[in-house]
Amino acid sequence: MFTTCIRPCSRCIILYTVVFTLTVCLYSHLQHQKTATMKRLFFLFILLTAIGFSAHSQKVSLSGQVVDKQSGEPLPGATISVEISEQKHFIVSGLNGTFILKNLPNGNWKVKAVYVGYNTYKNEVTVSEAKNMVIEMERKSNDLSEVSVNGKHDKSTDASAMQADRKATLVQNSVSARTIEISPDLSVANVVQRISGVSLERSTNGEGQYPIIRGMDKRYIYTLVNGIKIPGPDNKNRYVPLDIFPADLLDRLEVVKSLTPDREGDAIGGAVNMVMKDAPNQLSVKANVAAGFAGKFTSEDFTTFDNSASLDRSPRATNGTSYQATMKDFPNSAFSHADKHNPIASLLGLSVGGRVWKDKLGIIVAGSYQNNYRNVNSVFFGTETDMNNGDAKVTGIEQRQYSIQQQRSGLHAKLDLKIDDNNKIKLYAAYLNLDKNEFRSASDTNLQLGRTGAGTGRISNSYRTYHDVQQIFNVTLNGTHKITKHFGMDWSAVYSKASDNRPDEATLGLVTGVSKDANGALVQAPLNLDPVSHREFSRNSDEDKSGYLNFTYKSEIGKADVDWSVGGMYRNKTRTSSYDDYSLRPTDPSNQVYDGDISHNNFSVFNGEGTVDNALNYDATENVGAAYAMVKISLKKFELTGGARYENTDLSWQSAVPQTVKGRTGSITYYDVLPSALLKYSLNKKQAIRLSYYSAISRPNFYEVIPHNGGDPDADYQEIGNPNLKRTTADNFDLRYEYFPKGLDQLLAGVFYKRLNNPIEYALENVGTNTYYTPDNFGKASNYGAELDITKYFRWFGIKANYTYTHSEITTSKIKYYSTSTGTSQMTVNQSRPLQGQSAHIANVSLLFKDDNKLGLNAQLALGYTSRRINTVSQFLDNDIWQKAFTQMDFSIEKRITKRWFVYAKVNNILNTPYQLEIRQPYTGSGTVGAVPHQELGKNTFVRKDTYGSNYLLGVKFKL
């Protein structure tokens, strides 16, 4: 008889050959022996041949799913083997636990399944047609009387991140280290944009920098490392730029969207928590090296400058306030620049970790270095409001070219010591550094002064170079102690310091113009040195010394488990900032021509003493004390957490502005009681509903309350301070439904509502003849919306999608100009608008392919959409500046080439998505002569457009 095979074996081939040969020979013989008997024999041979081949062609398939017998949860990555006639066929279950083996012969099968931590599954089945089966696997049981299990689960996996969200008391969304590793993103800022409800504010080079959660601006969010708040390096603000953190140092990234009483209360929008890499149970070594290229360098050169000879701090800070700086303190190299062809980006990463001393001591050290280059092309229109009719009009057009080098580096180490079953100590230290070298050339054409037609007018050129170093250092020592069976405590002692040093920012000013001669030809005037160029020095630090202490008592009341918690924290924050701006004026003669070589020009220092009375020379101290009480009740399917937090804030400052300036020194003391309540109801093992309420605040940034006049050199308008600024308070409500059907699949759907009192926003205000950007409180505002987050896997393919709708509304007073019989007048009217930075629609879609087992291939195509949002609030009716909606696409792929070695590639900004600003008011051409580029009559008034190009990275990884 014939034996069936999955593919023709040697035995079958010989047999089929013999049958075929005999059939042919017999048929030839029958041509001469045409008897009935012989004919019957012929047809018998034909039938036997057909049966043989039919037996071989009758193939069936085996499909099914591997699940946990107790929970029914799918088990991805289980190895299934099928033995048929001493031949074995293998397959690995997909991301949703499913598998399929095709073209199997029918007969008796021996099915076996193996999965780490589970007993081996064995079964014998007889199959004559397609078979679908569920393989239920039982967990291995440990004899706890003999075995002490001290290990911990891997927090870097997708499953761990999902479990963290499911088990969390509050509302949060997480991204695992593995997802980050195979994503297109290199910094934490770019990772966070993939989470539902989060959009980004980007830096000059187009990379993500600050998150906006549920339409709430970066001021309403704080940043945590391992649950501990860290200070920011900015010299004005509290918030932390997330582009300083390399993404490959994380085990998990969490976006927290509600608060419990044991968490600090200044997070109206939410919080970003970075769970850093932890020590693995076994020795682990991971290395990573890559090189990259920016697409713009195929047609453009990168501009460099030499800052090595520049001072590290200002002459006044180095030599004292009586020192008079001279040109010897300011090397000309900062005014010089050169071109570099095709600069190559680089990336290095290394982590080593494991456990020693009978697994009691865990150690991990990890480092990361990223060096990239970007060219940015920008065009910006200065605007103002026409006081005759209230229309927006453009006053100048500025072409800007940026060459930006960023070096992002990080180093962190963690030691965790398990003294015994009741006492654990952890020591964590991290150092983050972001170096930035930026060259900017700008050509500003005044569209009103000296303009006689298209292409004419006064032109101001400038070259600016700066080297900026941002640093964050954190060391945390904490302990967890179980004092009795029901009573425990934990504590943390924290020192953190963030700093930013931008020494010798050099701005060379140049002036020229274009006019028409008698024949109507365009003539450009010589390029002369501007009457004033600048050398600026800014340096600041924000230092925190904090202590945390918490007590927990576990009890039972009836059938309910009740956890009682009390605790508190105290933080002393000291902020110091120094700033000097030295004005350089050309000498011998004063109207010098610039020929491209700065060594041919002469300068003198106009203010050798610096700017000791600038408002950026200030010291601030903030002491925050807090205490809380909280109870957590677990009863069957219910989990209720509630309590209140008390926070006292004492802020004082002293600025170096003249004694006559109001608000030169000041102090603010206030306290807040912040209640919260969270209810979780589990419908079953896979479904739950969460309902939460919490009260929160947002403190003003330091520099906002200090009187000043100046601002960011990249800002489109000068800033002024507001000593009367108040904190923002808010009530926050959240309702979410969670469904985790199987494996890594999930469905999250929810709604939220926030009611804000005294929200802080920046607005444009006219003071005299100047327009300033200033913070202010704007009464009351509401913010509500809905979120939908879906993840679905089909074996190796998956789709992750989320959508957030947000609607906010704030009503403020605006100035409206109108015509009268005697001329133009103005009135104050109320206008409702969204909160600054809030987009109505945010959506992300990622198409995934994940096969870590068979092919060792992972790929992701990520698409993100952010609808329009207000960038700058104007004091005039309908003159707010909006950022246009944008769509960004990124791609990444990783392939295993051997057991330990991988190659990968990342492509960012495939669509070359620009950053664009506009005033949603028709352009009328008011105040300009002739055609203006980028402006179209009757269309929205164009304000700004920055383009960044695509970026490519190719690398190799090693994992042990």
Give a topology summary.
Blueprint: H1 10-30, H2 36-57, E1 59-68, E2 79-84, E3 87-92, E4 98-105, E5 107-114, E6 121-127, E7 131-137, H3 158-167, E8 172-176, H4 177-181, H5 188-192, E9 198-202, E10 208-213, E11 221-225, E12 228-229, E13 250-256, E14 270-276, E15 284-294, E16 302-304, H6 315-319, E17 338-340, E18 345-356, E19 361-385, E20 392-420, E21 423-446, E22 457-482, E23 487-516, E24 522-524, E25 528-529, E26 533-557, E27 560-586, E28 603-605, E29 618-635, E30 638-655, E31 665-682, E32 687-698, H7 702-705, E33 709-710, E34 718-720, E35 728-739, E36 746-757, E37 760-767, E38 770-777, E39 780-794, E40 797-820, E41 823-833, E42 841-851, E43 857-866, E44 869-874, E45 881-883, E46 886-896, E47 901-908, E48 915-922, E49 940-947, E50 951-959
Parallel strand pairs: 1-7, 11-14, 34-38, 37-44
Antiparallel strand pairs: 1-4, 2-3, 2-5, 5-6, 8-13, 9-10, 11-12, 13-14, 15-18, 15-50, 16-17, 18-19, 19-20, 19-49, 20-21, 21-22, 22-23, 23-24, 23-25, 23-26, 26-27, 27-28, 27-29, 29-30, 30-31, 31-32, 32-35, 33-34, 35-36, 36-39, 37-38, 39-40, 40-41, 40-42, 42-43, 43-46, 44-45, 45-48, 46-47, 47-50, ...
Helix pairs in contact: 1-2
Describe the structure.
The structure is a single chain. Helix content is 8%, strand content 57%. With 960 residues, it is mainly beta. The chain folds into three domains: 1-57; 59-139, Immunoglobulin-like (Sandwich); 288-556 and 567-959, Maltoporin, Chain A, CATH 2.40.170.20. The strands form six sheets. It has a 22-stranded antiparallel barrel. A five-stranded mixed β-sheet has the order 8-13-14-11-12. The longest helix is centred in the N-terminal third of the chain and has 22 residues, at 36-57.
